[in-house]
Amino acid sequence: MTERRERRPGKPGTWGPEESGVLVGSRKGAIWLGRLCQKRQGEAASVDFDWSWVLAREERRGDVIGFWHTHPFGLAGPSRRDVRTMQAWVDCLGKPLLCLIEVPGRIAPYLFGSGEEAGRSLAEAQRFERGRLVVVERKAS
Ligand SMILES: [Zn+2]
After folding, report:
1. What whole-number distance in Å separates Cα of residue 23 and Cα of residue 1?
2. CATH of domain 19-136
3. What distances in angstroms separate CA 132 from CA 19, 26, 54, 89, 116, one per listed residue?
């Protein structure tokens, strides 16, 4: 029996494997420049990442800026579980963090800060080669 690897768009849940990663980088005003680390495929799409890796990285480099994961089922907003986990990360690291959710065709960026219930939707996020990411908080006026 051959393994089926091709994607079957149009059938919910079969867009592809769910993936997640940690974003490291820096923020320059309203622009965030990041790189995906610890990319992996998981059972459930969530922002429940490897806590020990993230904490060690933040301790050593202080450059964790957020998290990226896919929603193969297409919901472009954070799930309740995503929100809870993001709030825990913000409390833990003590700074605002990005939550990037990639759905078929685009990346939806959110910013979680302390004291904020849910994430704030940002203007734009783009992924480039080798896991580079650029996030723009708002369009230039
Ligand atoms: Zn999610």
Report:
1. 38
2. 3.40.140
3. 16, 12, 18, 22, 27
Whole-structure pTM value? 0.83
- The pocket of ion ligand 1, defined by CB under 5 A, consists of 45, 79, 82
Q: What is the mean pLDDT of the chain?
A: 84
Residue ranges per domain, the chain? 19-136
Report the separation in Å between the CA atom of 38 and the middle of ligand 1, taken as the mean of its atom positions: 17
The values of phi and psi at residue 15, to 5°, are -65, -30
Token digits for 50?
């490897």
Ligand 1 center from residue 26 Cα (angstroms): 23
Residue-wise pLDDT tens digits, 27-85:
999 999 999 998 888 755 455 567 889 999 999 999 999 999 998 878 889 988 889 98
